Amino acid sequence: MTLANSEEYAHMLDAARRGSYAYPAINVTSTQTLNAALQGFSEAQSDGIIQLSVGGASYISGQRLQDRVVGSIAFARFAAEVISHYKDITVALHTDHCAPQYLDEWVRPLLAYEKEQVSRGEEPLFQSHMWDGSTLPLDQNLAIAKDLLADCRAAHTVLEIEIGAVGGEEDGISAEINERLYSRPTDGITVAQALGLGEQGRYMAAFTFGNVHGAYKPGLVKLRPELLGQVQETTARAVAQGQFPAATSEAVAGAPSDKPFLLVFHGGSGSQPEEIAQAVREGVVKMNVDTDTQYAFTRGVAGHMFSNYDKVLKIDGEVGAKSSYDPRSWGREAEGTMAARVVEACQQLGSAGRALR
Predict the structure, then answer these.
(1) Residues that bind dihydroxyacetone phosphate, according to the entry (predicted)?
(2) Which of 89, 93, 98, 266 has the fewest CB atoms within 10 Å, counting from its CB?
C-alpha cells in the first residue's frame, strides 16, 4: 500500500530535508483532480502530498451537504483505495489552512476520529493537518498549536503551523501585502520555546517571507527566502548554546544541525525559480501548489470547449456530438494538463526521480 503511514511520512520529510529537495503539496477539489495529481507524481517518479482546503472539503461533500468532515472522510477513503494501486510512489494526505473559525467544525473532529482509529490499531485518515493561526497574535497562535500538537501526536499525525501572514486570498481568508508577510529570525526561537523541536510531537512550520496566495504579475510579490535561513540559523545557534536541553539529536528527528525546522512554502505561484531553489536549500520540504494546477486543469477544459464548441453545444438545431460533451472526454484532457503541471513542480523542487520505494 502506497498511502504513507506515520513512519513512512516521517521518513519522507526527513529524506527531503537531508537531501535538500521538497514535495509538491497539490490542493485537490475532486476525484478528478486527485487522479491528475497522482498521475503527475507517478510520471515524475516522485513521492508527494495531496491536500484539501476547508473549501475543498466542503465542496467534495456536495452542494446540498457542504459538510467539511463528511467531505474529508469520504475523500480520504476514496483516495486511500486509489493510491493503494500506485506501487511506485508514496503519497500523504493533508488538510490545508484551517483558520480559527473552522477549527472546532473541521480539524478537531477529524483528529478525534483519527485518535479513535489509532486506538483500534489503525492508521489515521490523514497524515498531517494545518493549523492556520496567522490572523492571531503569535502567543495565541502558539497556545492553540501546542494543544493541537498533543492531539496530533496521539493521532499519529504531523501538525503544520503558520508563523506570520500570507498575503492574497484563499477560501475567503485574506491578508494584505505588507510587512506582516515577513517573519523575524527570532520567531524561530519563540516557536521552539512553545512547541519544542520534535520532542513534543512532529510539526512543520510555514514561516512567511513575503508569500502571497494567488496569481500576480511579476514584480508585485517581493520574496525574501534568505529569511528562512536566518530563522534556521538563529534557532540552531540557540540549540547549540543549550537553550533547549530537551532538543536532543533524537528529538529533532534526523534534522541536520543547521536545519532544526521542517519548513513549508505557501503562496508559491509565480515565484522565480531561483527563489524557490533558495527556499528549498534553507529547509523547505513541502511547497503548496494550488493556483497553477487549478489553471492547468481548467485550461485543459477550455481548450477542449473552444476546439469543439459546435460539438459540445447544440447550435442551430443540431444535436452536437455526444463523444465531445461526455464529461469523460474533456475530463481526461483536464487531468492530462494538470498532471503535466504536477510533473513540472516535481522537477522544479527536486523530488522527481527520488521516490523512496
Answers:
(1) 214, 267-269, 288-291
(2) 89
Q: Are strands 263-265 and 284-289 parallel, antiparallel or unpaired?
A: parallel
DSSP state, residue 328: H
Maximum Cα–Cα distance for the chain, whole Å?
80
What is the average pLDDT across 1-25? 95
Please give the Cα distance from 327 to 313 (Å, whole number).
Answer: 13
Question: Do the annotations mark residue 266 as ligand-binding?
Answer: yes
Answer yes or no: is 40 a known binding residue: no
CA dist 136 and 179 (Å) reads 16
97 is in an annotated binding site: yes
**Homologous superfamily in CATH for domain 6-349:** Aldolase class I (3.20.20.70)
**Under 8 Å between Cβ of 211 and 267:** yes
Answer whether residue 168 shows pLDDT above 50.
Answer: no
Q: Check the annotation: does 268 bind a ligand.
A: yes
Q: Domain extents for the chain?
A: 6-349
> Exposure of 164 by Cβ count < 10 A (0-12 exposed, 13-18 middle, 19+ buried)?
buried
- Taking the whole predicted model, whether its pTM rises above 0.85 is answered as yes
User: d(Cα 132, Cα 103) in Å, to the nearest integer?
Assistant: 9
Cell numbers at residue 219, please?
514584480
Query: Looking at 96, 151, 187, 292, which residue is catalytic?
Result: 96
Residue 220 reports pLDDT greater than 70: no
Dist CA 126 CA 110 (whole Å): 9
Could you give the CA distance from residue 350 to residue 344 in angstroms, rounded to a whole number?
10
Q: Are strands 284-289 and 23-27 parallel, antiparallel or unpaired?
A: parallel
Partnered with residue 170 across adjacent β-strands are 173
Examine the pLDDT at 74 and tell me if it is beyond 90.
Answer: yes
Active-site residue flag, 67: no
